[in-house]
Structures are given as C-alpha cells and as structure tokens.
C-alpha cells in the first residue's frame, strides 16, 4: 500500500497516454485525410479525439489531492498554496499565448486569445481552491451546480427562432464574439471560449473525487470496483441527459462533461488494475515518462505543429507548408502503397517520437533526469 501523499503511477500512465493521444490528434500529416475517430465531431457527438482533452482535465483534477496533501501534511500554508496555484495558472496562460503567437505570425493583430492551455489554467485556478476547502461530497454538489448553471445559461433565448445550441447561433459564441472580437478560432466563437470554462471546472472536480478516492483507499479490487461503478454511472447519466442537451465538446455541455468524465474514470481504473500485476508493468514505462513530462512534450509538439503549418514557399499559385511538403514529397514516395489516413497517423507518430527524443536530449545536456517517479508496489 502506498503512502497517502505519494505519487500515483497509474495516474502518470493515464496522463502519458492522454498526452500521446492529444499529440496524435493535433498533428496529422494531412488534415484532410485522417481516420474518422481521430477527427473531432463536427458539432454534436463524441469521437476518440473529443475524449482526449476532457481526460486531461480529469487527470489534472485527480492529481490535485495528491499534490496538496503532500504539501499540507509537510506543514505548508494555504497562502503558499494559493501563490503556487496562481503562478502555475499564469505560466500555463503565458505558454498558451506563446503558441497562439506562433500560429498567428505574422498577423499578430489577429492572435487567438483562448486555447487549450488557457482553458486548463482557468479550470485549475478555480478548481484547486475548491479542492483545498471542500469535502468531496460538497465538491460533487458544486460540480453539479456548475453544470446546471451552464445549461441554464445556454438555454437563454438569444433571438426569435434561434435554437440556442446550433453551431452558428449559441450563447457561448455570442459571448466570445462580444468579449474577444476576432481573437477566436472561428468567426462564430471558440471551442475553448469563455462560457465553457464553467463545466470544464466540473470535469476537474470530478477528477478530484477520483483522486481523493484513490489517495484514501488501499490498492486492490475494491478501489478499482468503486471507480468503475462511478464511471459507468456518469456515462449513463451523460447519455440520458444527452436526449435534451446534446453531447458537444465545443460547448462542453453537461452531458458531455458527465459522459467523458465517466470514460476517464473507467480508463484510470483500467490503468490502475493493469499496474497491479508486476509482470505487465514493462509496457507502462514509456507512458510514465510521457506523463511526468506532459507539459514540456505537449508544448513542444504544438510549437512544432504551428511551425510546420506556417506557409514558407509557393507551389504554383498556392503557398505550401513544411507539413505538406514532408507528407506529400517525403513520406508518400517512401511508402507509396500506404493509405493517406494511415500515412497521416504515421506522421503524427513520428512527431510524438521526435519531440520525445528532443526532450530527452535537452534533459541529458542539462544533466537532469526527465523521470521523477517510481512504481507503486502492489498490495500484498
């Protein structure tokens, strides 16, 4: 049995797998030719790609009880924790804006303000103090209240005959256009916009409930069983709610929050169950490495992706990019019989491998280790 404040290896493995999934989804060789599960749903619905971001937020929430307990039990003050929370959130926002600057260059006046790291930062900034001060049961009530408030706000009519949940006409997009102007991903709004932050906090709070349960429970079938039951219940509630409030990642609807939170809970339970047996742990080491270096790997992968998408030459009457040149002129001639979807996924895998190796080399030059965790011993 691990000590209450120690690191949870299964959470690192799940985080590593999620970061790998996020990179594979965000860095295809050709955006027009990807396997259907690797592309986000056009509006309503959920694909594999739509599960990745909420899983990462769920993991963020699950890690909070471990990190805070360790510091509070060692005599840390609440004030020190608040400073740490604000610094980390500010750091994430800054990194997110750097990525947006690179993506917008040279038209910096049109820089996108929201983003994945910004959404994570604000969710952490709101959820973390709630985890510090509220018992798990009260956090569950707060998470439910946020989802109901978000649903109520989305249901406010914004015009005659307007459904309110369509891609072109929804209150979340209206708020983004009013407050952010053209600094959004699309003219109709942003999938990481302002209003969606509220249910994202609920996702983090759901994760914190799982983290608390794992921190207080001995490893074994009971710990996994309860999480499996909770995950199945959340998925079922999400699907029932989806009859009146569709599963929608761009709006981060309440049904989407519960369904994806349930899937994340089941995935965490699967990781914990698999790691309970010594002889299967060899497969987990790459995911552990990815998990404990998640931010650096994700940031570098996104930075490389933006640079690959920057126009740098003209082919005929169209500007070309490094991504299209590598995909069509380098990779495709090497494997001419491979389908474009498989080749696109292969490009993403190469991106993941390349970024991981670069991080390792940078760490080696600085004389530091990029892995700072060890496996838990299985319960005897």
Write the layout of secondary structure elements.
Elements: H1 9-26, H2 48-73, H3 78-104, H4 116-133, H5 136-154, H6 171-180, H7 197-216, H8 221-241, H9 254-274, H10 285-292, H11 294-309, E1 311-315, E2 318-321, H12 322-334, H13 340-366
Antiparallel strand pairs: 1-2
Helix pairs in contact: 1-2, 1-9, 1-10, 1-11, 1-13, 2-4, 2-7, 2-9, 3-4, 3-11, 4-7, 5-7, 7-9, 8-9, 11-13
* Approximate shape: globular
Average pLDDT confidence is 85
Number of domains: 2
Separation, N- and C-terminal Cα atoms: 8 Å
Query: Helical residue percent?
Result: 55-70%
Strand content: under 5%
Structural category is: mainly alpha
H/I helix tally? 13
Residue runs with pLDDT of under 50 for 5 or more positions:
1-6, 370-380
If strands are numbered along the chain, what order do they take across the biggest sheet? Answer: 1-2
- Count of beta strands: 2
Largest sheet: 2 strands, antiparallel
Radius of gyration: 21 Å
Topology as a string of helices (H) and strands (E): HHHHHHHHHHHEEHH
């Amino acid at each position: 049995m691990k000590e209450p404040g120690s690191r949870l290896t299964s959470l690192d493995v799940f985080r590593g797998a999620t970061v790998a999934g996020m990179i594979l989804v965000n860095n295809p060789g050709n955006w027009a030719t990807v396997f259907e599960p690797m592309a986000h749903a056009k509006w309503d619905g959920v694909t594999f790609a739509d599960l990745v971001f909420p899983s990462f937020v769920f993991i963020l929430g699950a890690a909070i009880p471990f990190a805070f307990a360790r510091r509070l039990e060692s005599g840390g003050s609440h004030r020190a924790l608040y400073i740490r929370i604000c610094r980390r959130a500010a750091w994430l926002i800054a990194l997110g804006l750097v990525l947006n600057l690179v993506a917008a260059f040279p038209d910096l006046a049109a820089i996108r303000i929201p983003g994945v790291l910004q959404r994570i930062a604000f969710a952490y900034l709101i959820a973390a103090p709630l985890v510090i001060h509220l018992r798990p049961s009260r956090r569950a009530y707060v998470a439910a209240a946020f989802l109901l408030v978000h649903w109520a706000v989305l249901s406010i009519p914004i015009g005659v005959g307007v459904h309110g949940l369509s891609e072109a006409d929804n209150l979340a997009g209206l708020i983004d256009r009013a407050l952010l102007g053209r600094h959004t991903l699309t003219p109709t709004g942003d999938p990481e916009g302002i209003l969606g932050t509220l249910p994202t906090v609920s996702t983090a709070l759901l994760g914190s409930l799982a983290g608390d349960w794992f921190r207080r429970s001995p490893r074994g079938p009971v710990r996994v069983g309860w999480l499996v039951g909770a995950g199945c219940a959340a998925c079922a509630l999400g699907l029932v709610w989806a009859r009146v409030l569709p599963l929608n990642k761009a709006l981060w609807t309440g049904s989407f929050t519960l369904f994806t939170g349930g899937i994340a809970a089941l995935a965490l339970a699967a990781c914990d169950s698999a790691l309970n047996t010594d002889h299967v742990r060899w497969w987990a080491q790459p995911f552990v490495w990815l998990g404990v270096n998640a931010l650096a790997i994700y940031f570098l992968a996104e930075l490389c992706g933006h640079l690959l998408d920057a126009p740098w030459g003209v082919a005929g009457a169209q500007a070309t990019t490094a991504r299209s040149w590598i995909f069509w002129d380098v990779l495709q001639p090497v494997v001419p019989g491979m389908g474009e979807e498989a080749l696109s996924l292969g490009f993403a895998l190469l991106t993941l491998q390349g970024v991981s190796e670069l991080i390792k080399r940078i760490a080696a030059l600085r004389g530091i280790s990029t892995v700072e965790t060890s496996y838990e011993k299985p319960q005897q």
